[in-house]
Amino acid sequence: MKSVAILGGGVAGLTAARMLHQRCAISVFEANDTIGGLCRTRQTPEGFLFDIGGGHIFHSIYPEILNIMLEYAGGADNLLQHKRNTRIFMYDRFIQYPFENGLGDLPPGVRYDCLMGYINAWIEREKNGESDYNSFYDFIMRRFGSGIADHFMLPYNRKIWCTDPRNMSVDWIKNRVPQAPLEDVVKSALGMNTEGYKHQSTFYYPRKGGIQFFINALAEPFKDSIRTSTPVVSIAKDGKSWLINGEKFDRVVSTIPLDVFCTLYEGVPKSVLRCANDLSHISLLTVLVGLKIPETEPYSWLYLPQEEQGEANRLTYFTNYSAQLAPKGFSSVLVEATLSADDANSVTRQRVDTIVSDMIRIGLVKCSDIIMIDWDIVPYAYLVHDHAMTRNRDMIIQSLGDESIDFVGRFGSFRYYNMDQVIKQVRETINTRYI
């Protein structure tokens, strides 16, 4: 039986372990004292549950992967099914999401800007055809037009990515930024109901325990093979074997950040290390606000695109996912703000209080309702698709990869994957490489 070191105990690492534990001698190395990675839940002293990585939900465009996620959770009875009820909060009103399907909710002047810009961009593409996009900014302008770009897409994406969209490539946008048909956009501007992102129209969330319930259920069959509070501190090759923290293994599945792997790998070529140092990521600050009211607004979550709304880019009505996320008679909201990697180490309570004050100022939370505030930081939350990212990533994996190691997961393979895509990638990798 081959020995396999699985580096990282998030969704990717645990999925790999789930598939391998009966045919290999596995060891999962997890730096934190709790498994889950981005999908961790902790309980506050007041009894509120807090998903530190933001509002994770179960949905997928792949029916077979959704079924596997439900299986990993122990069956659909352990989950609550919801109809997505998402809005964009701007101009002091709730706009239907996706934005181009909610133009009728906008002030008349803004609605006109967005509709005309969309039509002009559509005409331009029909006349000149599709061509390659130079940047994410170029994609936004040519796909959505100047109105939607200026009012929503550009300010929102500057806020969430902590960079100018001109600095970003378009490698990552397939299936992430779909375009509404022109007919739907015209209908929405006229106040006729249309619906976009139908693959997200319903979603699941654990009935109890937060997203940690799913993680614990996923890991249950091999929990004795998990080493928590055990960071990877050294990686080396010893002939055909691998040395992880000095311990010998036949194979490795790495889900830790690709740039971190390179810094830990003994004898890594300088050219590879340069590529690793050029990989960019951003961090996430999540703020849980406990409320002494039994119910909040009926929405799933809100996007907050405007600079004047403060640095938060999203607010999730967390107890609408499950009432058991708060003590009986209480509710909570989860506020998210992305940070540059350098900025993540300097977050203070004053900054957290400012974010909460912004939510009060724009009318999404009442000060008199607040009973508690808690917060956490996820150092690696999103990868940034700058123009060199794909080249750097591919060079690293091609240089370091061989038949005895696999790089999987959002940061392990440095691909902007959601939970379902991570599970799909890991399953395909294990089924192909461990036959």
UniProtKB/TrEMBL annotation:
InterPro entries: Amino_oxidase, FAD/NAD-bd_sf. Residues 11-262 form the Amine oxidase domain. Coiled coil: none annotated. GO terms for molecular function: flavin adenine dinucleotide binding; oxidoreductase activity; UDP-galactopyranose mutase activity. GO terms for cellular component: cytosol. Pfam families: Amino_oxidase. Gene3D superfamilies: FAD/NAD(P)-binding domain. This is FAD-dependent oxidoreductase.
